[in-house]
Structures are given as C-alpha cells and as structure tokens.
Amino acid sequence: MPLAALRPSRTLMRQAMWGISATAVVEAEQKLQTPHGNKLVNLMLPEGEREVAKAACTKSMELSDRNACDVELLCVGGFSPLEGFMSEAQYSEVVHSMRLPDGLLFGLPVVLDTDSEDISVGDKVLLTYQGADLAVVDIDSKWTPNKPVEALHCYGTTSLEHPAVQMIAMDRGKFYLGGRVQGLALPKRVFPCATPAQVRETLPAGVDVLAFQCRNPIHRAHYELFTRALEAENVRPGAICLVHPTCGPTQDDDIPGIVRYQTYEVLKEEVANPRLRWAYLPYSMHMAGPREAIQHIIIRKNYGCTHFIIGRDMAGCKSSISGEDFYGPYHAQDTAKAHAAELGVQAVPSLNITYTEERGYVTADVAQEEGLHVKSLSGTKFRKMLRSGEDIPEWFAFKSVVNVLRSAKPASSE
C-alpha cells in the first residue's frame, strides 16, 4: 500500500511522544552525525608498523567469535570513543551506571576474557582468530569479575535462563583483560562488513538517517515497518534508512549469519529502493533489552545515523524454562526515549503493522477501527511450511528470501 494512503491514526499521533517531538527538532547542520564522544576512532596500524607491533608481543591468545567481533568494532570505530577493551574501572562504571568514568553513556561492557593465569598487566598480547593475526593489546588491567553483579545490572537477572547470563557464566573465561588495542587486520568474513567511515561515505550530508537493526531475515512486515518509518513525525523529508543487520553470533537457534546475509542481498536487489542503504554489522548480540538498545544506538550513531527505529521488545528474550519475557514490551523503547536528547539520536517507534484482506498492510488500530479481516502467520507455522515445501503467502515473505532459506533448509529450519 502506498505510504500516502496510510491515513492518520492514534499510532501515528503517538509518535510525537517519542524522542524529541517534531516541533522541538532543531535544524541539523549540513553535515553528518557526530560520532559518540565527538571522535570516530580508528585503531588500525599503518601497514609499515604492523610487523614491529607483532614482534614486540610477549604472549598470544586465540579469540572467540564474539571477541573477534568486538576487536573488529573497536578497530574500525564502531565502539567509539573506546580505544581498547575496558579497564576494570571503566567496566565497573558501565556495569553499575551505564556510563564511562567521564560520564558518557555506554550500554554494555566491552571486555576481553581469558582463563589464562599467565597473562599479566604489562604484557603485550597478540590476538589471533582462525589463523590470522588481528590485533595487539597492551594489557593494563586484569581482574576477576563479579559475574552475578554484572548479570543483574546489565541483563536485569542472574538466571541462567537468560542467554547472555549463560554466556558470561559458562562461555566467558575466569578473568577479564583491559587495554589499548592496535589493529593489524580485520577478520576475513564471507560477508563484507563496511566500516563506519565507509558507510558514512555513502550518506548524504544534512539528511536524516534512520537505522534499522535486525538479526533475522526480513519479511514483508519488517519492510513495511522501516519504509513507513521514513515518514514518521520526527523525521524530516528526504530521509534515508540504513538497513544494518547484525551478522555476528546471536542466539543458538537463530539462522546462521551467512544465510541471513544471503537473504539481505537478494532482498536488496529485489526492492532496489533508492531510499535504503545496506550494510552488515559484525556484532554479537547479548539480548539485553533496554541496555542493548542503548548499545545499538551508540554503534549506529558512529555509523552516521541520526534516528533509530525501535520496536516492541527490542533485543528481548524469553526464559528457556517458563517462556516468560525478561523485559516488558516497551522497556527498550522507553529507555531509548529517555536518553534520546543526550545521545543526539531520536527514537522512531516502529508501527504496529498487520496484514488485512481488504487493504493489505495497515496499522493495527486502523484494522480494528474499520473491522478489517486480519491475516497472520506464526513463526512456528512459517518454519513448518518452509520445511514441508508448502507455498508461503507473498504477503508474509518475499519469494527471494524464501528461496534462500529453502536452499539452506538444514541450517535454517531448526
């Protein structure tokens, strides 16, 4: 349905309540978004200095998939203004107050973990990943973290039913290490991950840039959400949307990153929408709800975004035993809204979209007011249809995306 056909509704009227209302928006300067902390960090060493840095290392350690993502985002400035893994003092401040020691907002700790008793403060450690030398870190801090305290403050629970609590308790090592990082190379990935500087080169100056975060294939409803967000009240005309999925480790039952990447690539070609930009983020999800929302906003700010599209229960998760949600449906949205002015990134709430027989996709309140016949398809039913080869309705999923998922059925239909 054309955007112009979407008549005003209570849902649209509520958007003025989010972030900074349209009437309060200050005219942006004709430049790109300022990075977090006012500086876009680049930790990559010049090529001529890399062998010298490697030769000075006294220890080495192999990175996990998650740590490799963190090293990459540190080196390219995705975690600006950080210039390395957090020290104990930085870690403690972020855990307890969601801020760095200088008061700058930061969502979650960025730490290097190890079980090694041998690595000590003062060591220069070579970080390797899948046979490649990625970075050098000068260790200036080593400590044994209080993981239950970290879990409670960052994830709101100490229960192992939460995937991130389980991750820090069972996957991360006994010690955390902090120190300045010097980049040697970026991980070789089967999907390209443009750096913040590279993404910024594709963005027009003085134009609102909305970020759309996802970690799963994009279906019709998602596409409706982020294209309609371009017309939100607190978004200026001519805005563009950066579709920026995370392709690093997520939850165990999520579709593998390479398959997700393939679905995004075929969809990009199919829609060929000039108001969209596409890039991929090497980030490992924590499913931390409101804290993760802040982390995502900061990262996308560094990539040049001025707005962040945020849906119900963003980065939320459920108990693996009871099935109960760990966060309320608007917890992440409310946190983003509360910090919008400080971050300089406005929250754009995603519309509650539903498909109707009479008018296609409309907002849920319009469907209710007009008594329209709503059609729905659960994720469980979709996966069953995918496995069995049944026709999947085009109102639910793009054919190109379905074809990719079917070609990778053993990996994507668990």
UniProtKB/TrEMBL annotation:
<comment type="similarity">
    <text>Belongs to the sulfate adenylyltransferase family.</text>
</comment>
<comment type="pathway">
    <text>Sulfur metabolism; hydrogen sulfide biosynthesis; sulfite from sulfate: step 1/3.</text>
</comment>
<keyword id="KW-0067">ATP-binding</keyword>
<dbReference type="InterPro" id="IPR002650">
    <property type="entry name" value="Sulphate_adenylyltransferase"/>
</dbReference>
<keyword id="KW-0808">Transferase</keyword>
<keyword id="KW-0547">Nucleotide-binding</keyword>
<dbReference type="GO" id="GO:0000103">
    <property type="term" value="P:sulfate assimilation"/>
</dbReference>
<dbReference type="Pfam" id="PF01747">
    <property type="entry name" value="ATP-sulfurylase"/>
</dbReference>
<dbReference type="InterPro" id="IPR024951">
    <property type="entry name" value="Sulfurylase_cat_dom"/>
</dbReference>
<dbReference type="InterPro" id="IPR025980">
    <property type="entry name" value="ATP-Sase_PUA-like_dom"/>
</dbReference>
<dbReference type="GO" id="GO:0004781">
    <property type="term" value="F:sulfate adenylyltransferase (ATP) activity"/>
</dbReference>
<protein>
    <recommendedName>
        <fullName>sulfate adenylyltransferase</fullName>
        <ecNumber>2.7.7.4</ecNumber>
    </recommendedName>
</protein>
<keyword id="KW-0548">Nucleotidyltransferase</keyword>
<dbReference type="InterPro" id="IPR015947">
    <property type="entry name" value="PUA-like_sf"/>
</dbReference>
<feature type="domain" description="Sulphate adenylyltransferase catalytic">
    <location>
        <begin position="194"/>
        <end position="407"/>
    </location>
</feature>
<feature type="domain" description="ATP-sulfurylase PUA-like">
    <location>
        <begin position="34"/>
        <end position="184"/>
    </location>
</feature>
<dbReference type="InterPro" id="IPR014729">
    <property type="entry name" value="Rossmann-like_a/b/a_fold"/>
</dbReference>
<dbReference type="Pfam" id="PF14306">
    <property type="entry name" value="PUA_2"/>
</dbReference>
<dbReference type="GO" id="GO:0005524">
    <property type="term" value="F:ATP binding"/>
</dbReference>
